[in-house]
Structure formats: C-alpha cells, structure tokens
Amino acid sequence: MKFQVDHDYHVHTQLSPCSSDPAMTPETIMEFGLSHGMKDIVLTDHFWDETIPGTTFWPGYAVISQWLPLPQSPELRMHLGCEAELDITATVGISRKTAEKFDFIAVPTNHIHLVHSTVREEDVHNIKALTRLYVERWKALLAADLPFHKMGIAHLDGICLNGFTDQGTIRLEILEGISDDVYKDLFSRTAKLGMGVELNVPVNCYTNEQLDRALRIYRIAAECDCRFYCGTDAHHPKHLEPYYQDCCLVVDKLGLDEEQKFNPFARNL
To answer: Burial of 69 by CB count in 10 Å (0-12 exposed, 13-18 middle, 19+ buried)?
Structure first.
C-alpha cells in the first residue's frame, strides 16, 4: 500500500520564537489536519531543556506545555512534542528524563545558521566548514543517550543557512559534499537506533533537476532501511497547505509504501 500522508510530526505554534503568529494555535492546526484526513499531529515548538547548560534563546518546558491539555477528536490525535536543538558544541538540548514528558522529539542537525548559538562566526559562510559541521552534529545526535524510538531527525536537506541568496544551490553543494559511504554509515546507524527520518523538502528552493539531486539522500536512507515520517515544519497557517503538498510530492517521487512509515504511536493504538 502506498505511503499515506496522514500525519504531521513537525509543526510549530505561536510559542516558537520564529513563529509568534497568534493564528498558529492547536485548534488551527487541528482543523487543517481534520480537513486533510490526518490521524496524528505533533506540536513541535522549539525547545531547550532547562536542566542542560547552554543557550537561553529557545523556550523551556513550562512555556511550550501551556497548550496542555491538547484538543482531541475521534479522528485525530494531537500530541505534545518538541524540536530539541543542538548548540554550538553539538550538545543535544534535551535529557532522557525530560524526553519522557514528550510524545515525540524532532531534532534538526542542520540549524547551522545561528551565529554563536549553532555555528562559529568564521564558519557561517564557509561551505567546507558547514559540510563538516552537518556531519559532526548528526554523529553527536546518534551518540546521545535518548529514547530514539520516539525521535526523528528533522529536514535533512532543508539546511538553515545565513546570508546566502541562492539557498538551493548552496544546500546541494553541502549535501553533495558528503559521500555515499558517509551517508550509508549515518543512515544505517539512524535505522539501527530506531529513529525516524523526516520528509520535509523545500521544493520551491529547487529546480526539477535540483530536486531530484536533493532526494538522493532519502533514497540512500531507504536503502539503509530507515523509516520515514512527514513534517510540514509550518510556522504560519498559510504554510500548512503548500508544505503539506510538498510532502505528498516527495512521497510520490520516492515511491514509498506504508511499510516504510515511521510511527512512534503504533504501540499506543
């Protein structure tokens, strides 16, 4: 059976500093999910665990848990998750104990655009340094002591960059600066840990030819038996529909089936 885009495990509310959109509420997100036949949605506001020394830019649990209890319906389950950050030292900003409070945790290894927070100032425009950082942060995540069965590695090709005008070209330069062997090692370890791989591709950043090149990493992930999930990473209501359509397009282009789906909630059915 074809992979069904019946979920969104990565979406932000107004509580994320990069959203702050009063219209982005659980009710708004839930309404969109119901209109698109979704079964599970996870709110994943940006997060840093107060028990871990590091950045104070991202909100803590007391902030992003304000939505509890979340609205629910017989057709759609809403879950409280988070997007846990890595700092400039590649420390993952969530402990195993704190992770127990969340239903799902997305971790972006490629937020390599925040000077002094995730990247050194001298590296922010250095393609070779950013490529190395991309791999190092991914390895640091895989080495952490965390409940990977309910975690996903977020938007692997949606690299966050600072100051580049042609984002698609630079993203591809970074992605293609990493060999198949390195990807196979990283994806094999990701699959072994039981962590999901997010399908979140900035389609509009690419030409058709570039998009096919960007999907290379997901094809390698599939070869390594990774399981996939969809995340819009929407920060505003107007982003929900186009980002959802991007997910559908990517699923079609990769030819995924339901057996390749990552579902951290299956054990709770």
So the answer is: exposed
What does the CA dihedral 191, 181, 84, 260 come to, rounded to 10 degrees?
-30
pTM to 2 decimal places: 0.94
| SS3 of residue 106 by DSSP | strand
**What's the pLDDT tens digit per position in 31-64?**
999 999 999 999 999 999 999 987 667 899 999 9
CB 72 within 8 A of CB 78: yes
238-262 exposure pattern, b = at least 16 Cβ within 10 A, e = fewer: ebbeebbebbeebbeebebeeebbb
**How would DSSP label each residue in 13-67?**
-TTSTTT--TT--HHHHHHHHHHTT-SEEEE--EE--TTS-S--SS--HHHHGGG
- The 10 Å Cβ neighbour count of residue 136 is 13
The DSSP letter of residue 166 is -
